[in-house]
Amino acid sequence: MTSGAEEGARLAALHSYRVLDGPRPPALDELARLAAGLFGTPMASVSLIDRDRQWLAGNTGMPDGDTPRDISFCAQTVPARAPLVVPDARADDRFRTWANVTGAPHIRLYDGSPLIDEDGHALGALCVLDDRPGAPSDRRREALDTLARQAAGQLALLRGRLLLAELGDELARATQREEDLIATVSHELRTPVTNIRGYLELLTDDARLADLSRLVEPIHRNGERLVDMVDHLLNGTRPADNPLSVQRTPAELHLVATAAAQAARTTAEQRGVDLVVKAPVHPVVVHADVARLTQAVVQLIRNAVLFTPAGGRVTVRTTLDVVAAVEVADTGVGVPPDELPYVFQRFFRGRHARRQAVPGVGLGLHIAQQTATAHGGRITLTSSPSGTTARLTVS
Description:
Blueprint: H1 4-16, H2 26-39, E1 43-49, E2 53-60, E3 67-68, H3 77-80, E4 84-86, H4 99-102, E5 109-116, E6 122-130, H5 138-205, H6 213-236, E7 249-252, H7 253-270, E8 274-278, E9 285-288, H8 290-306, E10 313-321, E11 323-330, H9 351-355, H10 364-374, E12 379-384, E13 387-394
Parallel strand pairs: 8-10
Antiparallel strand pairs: 1-2, 1-6, 2-3, 4-5, 5-6, 7-9, 10-11, 11-13, 12-13
């Protein structure tokens, strides 16, 4: 006998499959027909046992509609969680007076195996029925148990597909909400900041305010930082159906790497990190959007610097091995293996970034990867506790 709590948990599990009162799943109808055909019975069903009724999720030969639980043979398998074999219901004192025995469909033989789901709940039974008495063999019993497991597996698949569909819908809604929010915030920031920048330029050009230049300059510098941040957000949240456009011109890749290193040099000096740019043996010329490619390399170098302890080194080099590439190698803390698959996702910040309060919102590598993709290449990371190497290719 099951307790009230156990029955409540079982019913909650049953309803989580969302099969009750819907169209019968074709796979469960097919299992019922297969069972009837294998065992030579006119009736078979995949029955689910609700609070006070039996509902047929798969059926052949049985009348459609609910059956009261108190005259359900399959319901007898639920508390016992074991097969039930009734060779002749008319000769069994437990069932001889039931309406489905004395009247249609005149059940005599009943042979059922419980449907046990992956969490151990007995959901119902897969059974074969006959209007003539019979005695199932051990071999048939084993086969029916196997079919019951198949039926439970089909129910699990149905629930899994439903959950995946709901998750996909929710992710789509969350992504849209994220993009809408960022677009709104970016617009609301960009308009006033651009106005502030314009007024500051007027103040800078006014000779009468020369004595206040020391106050205007940091305001102007921080205004530029805000504009750059808004641009960073907009680039990082670009929709997938609106790929980054690039204007390519011939460029020497070493010069791109040198310019990127120069942009990150102040940060390296402040953090006590040695930043080295190694010249290639032969010039490596690519067709690239120099401004965008430089910003992508800046991001790789900046990341390397921020995750390298003082006294460490970041080395930048250009290579030509089948494809042109910029490599940025550091002697930093490395990326944990479980985080490597996610480092290019938007807004991803790993454990080291959070613990060390590394500045940023987790868009830099995502934007850099977009830039590499727009140039027909990609960025790959290899990492260990002794350092990380980022490789950006261009084709």
